[in-house]
Design a protein that fits this description.
Shape: globular
CATH superfamily: Collagenase (Catalytic Domain)
Number of helices: 6
GO molecular function, one term: metallopeptidase activity
Protein name: M54 archaelysin family metalloprotease
Strand order of the largest sheet: 2-1-5-9-8
CATH class: Alpha Beta
Oligomer: single chain
Radius of gyration: 15 Å
Structural class: alpha/beta
Pfam families: Peptidase_M54
Order of helices and strands: EHEEEHEEHEEEHHH
Number of strands: 9
Distance between the termini: 14 Å
Helix content: 25-40%
Keywords: Hydrolase, Metal-binding, Metalloprotease, Protease, Zinc
Number of domains: 1
Organism: Flavobacterium limnosediminis JC2902
Low-confidence stretches: none
Mean pLDDT: 94
Strand content: 15-25%
Length: about 180
């Protein structure tokens, strides 16, 4: 299994290498650093604030994934968003809040592409920000591998439930149930 790590718009080379190593070590896959790209202009919106649609970035990544890769993880420092839905694909209400919902990352379950942003996981302590980045990348790629959200609040696959504090409380580890699902 080969995973391409795609940095966008000047995303830190050090962080890109870090995420490649984390994904390799965590999931026992091979990672390849791809040449930096600019996010496709068609993903840009300005509904609530200027940002990029995560679902559009994923679509562009999926369309351009080389045959040599099985998956692609996009990394950006830009703000990203998606539409937040309830179970059954009905938009969560109120619509003005959830039609353009800012997210830390997005990955389809299953899928071959996900995107992670550092925009919403910043912290004055650089180490906390890096741990958050690792957890979000592992979480979104976990969705690509077929892992759904987990009810175990310590599992990296727990739902962030609209709060970065949830990520801080989770471990950079899968619970026993999620580990079993992967094997």
């Amino acid at each position: 299994m080969v995973v391409g790590i795609q940095a966008y718009n000047g995303f830190s080379k050090e962080k890109t290498k870090l995420i490649a190593k984390v994904i390799t070590d965590f999931y026992d896959v091979r990672t390849i650093l791809l040449n930096e790209k600019t996010i496709n202009k068609k993903a840009f919106i300005n509904v609530k604030s200027p940002r990029y649609r995560a679902d559009s970035i994923i679509l562009f990544q999926r369309k351009s994934i080389p045959d040599s890769l099985d998956f692609i993880i996009g990394l950006t420092a830009k703000d990203i968003s998606t539409t937040k839905y309830e179970k059954g694909r009905k938009m969560k209400l109120p619509a003005y809040k959830y039609q353009d919902w800012g997210v830390m990352g997005l990955g389809y379950c299953p899928g071959n592409s996900c995107v992670v942003s550092t925009y919403r996981i910043k912290h004055k302590d650089k180490n906390i920000a890096l741990i958050r980045l690792k957890k979000v990348a592992v979480h979104e790629f976990g969705h690509n591998l077929g892992l759904p959200h987990c009810p175990d609040k310590k599992c990296v696959m727990t739902d962030a439930v609209e709060s970065v504090a949830t990520i801080d409380n989770a471990k950079l580890a899968l619970c026993k149930i999620c580990k079993t699902k992967l094997n």
